[in-house]
Write a structure and sequence with these properties.
single chain, 7-stranded mixed sheet, globular, alpha/beta
Length: about 230
């Protein structure tokens, strides 16, 4: 069984909330930490943990991945097929990868909640790209509803599995750039419609001219979302 053994943590005050922020594909905890420094600097009574995925990336030996993408889509066809429906079908094939990633992420989260003596309602899952997809999936598969989920440039995947097996419906914030060239912008409306049909409360924020990256305005929205309770 794979385990998460590397992480970066920032603790501010006496934590009343736990934020777990998942990096993307061909990425790392240290790279994500640099990108979200403005977010980290504004935390109050929160513990922020940025775990490092335990899998070495299949495309870059010095980067990480939460699960293989090429195992399920070796030619990256999901990026070029004409319709959102066709794109979604590629992610539907990735259920095994999501299940494997969830199997090692969940114990990590449970250990952190125990460490801080917090409950699931105090947990906020955030993620970018592949990390956003895993954050969405995990938040919906939790037995008890968490505080919320923030997706930066993600998509609900695998949607066909989630629709049949959803366990929890936490409030969710979707952030996406309208010029994203890797995870198409239409993924945001697709995800919103799917989640709302399942009874999940959804808020969206569009990054104008935003490409496939985390932006400062997106981080501000995420912090507002987390601290509004």
């Amino acid at each position: 069984m794979l385990e998460i053994t590397e992480e970066i943590a920032h603790i501010q005050g006496i934590p009343k909330k736990l934020i777990v922020f998942l990096h993307g594909y061909i990425d790392s905890d240290t790279a994500l930490e640099r990108v979200i420094r403005s977010f980290t600097s504004k935390l109050k009574n929160e513990a922020l943990h940025i775990p490092q995925a335990p899998l070495v990336c299949e495309l870059h030996e010095h980067k990480r991945q939460w699960y293989s993408m090429h195992r399920f889509d070796p030619n990256d066809d999901r990026k070029t097929v004409p319709s959102m429906a066709e794109c979604s079908e590629f992610y539907n094939k990735m259920q095994r990868g999501f299940a494997e990633a969830n199997a090692y992420l969940r114990p990590y989260i449970e250990n952190l909640l125990n460490e801080y003596q917090l409950e699931e309602k105090d947990l906020y899952l955030c993620g970018f790209s592949q990390g956003a997809m895993l954050a969405l999936y995990t938040s919906l598969m939790m037995e008890n509803k968490i505080g919320g989920c923030v997706s930066f440039s993600g998509i609900l995947a695998p949607s066909c599995y989630v629709e049949k097996h959803i366990k929890s419906r936490p409030k969710t914030l979707l952030i996406h750039g309208d010029a994203d060239n890797l995870v198409r912008f239409e993924a945001m409306s697709f995800t919103k419609e799917k989640l709302e049909a399942l009874g999940v409360p959804v808020t969206t924020y569009v990054v104008k001219k935003g490409q496939h990256r985390i932006t400062e305005d997106g981080l501000r929205k995420a912090l507002e979302f987390i601290e509004q309770d």
